[in-house]
Amino acid sequence: MIEIFTETPNSLFESVAEAAYEKLALKGRATVELLIVSEEEIREINARERDVDSVTDVLSFPLLGEIKPFEKENYPFDYDEDTDGVSLGSILICDEVARRQAKEYGHSEQRERAYLFLHGLLHLLGYDHMDEETKNEMRTAEEDILRSVGLAR
Q1: Where does residue 152 fall: left (phi above 0), alpha (psi -120 to 50 degrees), or beta otherwise?
Q2: Alpha helices, DSSP H only, in the chain?
Q3: d(C-alpha 92, C-alpha 105), whole Å
Q4: Each residue's pLDDT tens digit, 128-149
Q5: What is the mean pLDDT of residues 85-109?
Q6: Please, which residues have CB within 8 angstroms of residue 115's CB and are 6 or more apart in sequence?
Q7: Which of the residues 34, 88, 100, 105 has the least number of beta carbons within 10 Å of its own beta carbon?
Q8: Cα–Cα distance for residue pair 142/112, rounded to 1 Å
Q9: What is the pTM assigned to this prediction?
Q10: Assign residue 136 a region: left if phi > 0, alpha if psi is -120 to 50, beta otherwise?
């Protein structure tokens, strides 16, 4: 199970997290912090954390290195007794950019938000898109998971 901590609860994100957990055959209990931020906030964070002074759609900040079953014995220093799980990290989504991109790509804002959340979640789980092989692996996982929650392209 992946529990989402956010100021703006949304069953869409919970459905995507559950589908990712199942499709990726994850084990144990994990948590994710989700923040919906403004363009100004995401630009400031992007500049400060990545030295990229521009607005972006999603940022993710993983806390773990190697991904193992999310159990206390695997993550003795990362396990949170209060949540009874392992924190994967934080995802920040810029909703203004998500709305623009939905129009640009010709799909719903719901699909775009789900995609951005999932993209960030996969980064927290060790996925990347630095070369064609890893990019294809990540895109395949994204599309499979989105399809499973009824948000196929």
Answers
A1: beta
A2: 11-23, 39-50, 95-105, 109-124, 132-148
A3: 21
A4: 988 899 889 999 999 999 999 9
A5: 95
A6: 142, 146, 151
A7: 105
A8: 12
A9: 0.93
A10: alpha
Q: Which amino acid is present at 93?
A: I
* CB contact at 8 A, 126 and 89: no
Give the dihedral sign, CA 53/55/57/62: positive
Whole-angstrom distance, CA of residue 142 vs CA of residue 70? 21
Residue 49 burial (C-beta neighbours within 10 Å; 0-12, 13-18, 19+): exposed
* Per-residue CA distances from 43 to 37, 67, 97, 118, 128 (Å): 10, 29, 11, 20, 21
Q: How many residues does the chain have?
A: 153
Q: Which distant-in-sequence residues (6+ apart) come within 8 Å of 140 by Cβ?
A: none
- Write out pLDDT tens, residues 15-54: 999 999 999 999 999 999 999 999 999 999 999 999 999 9
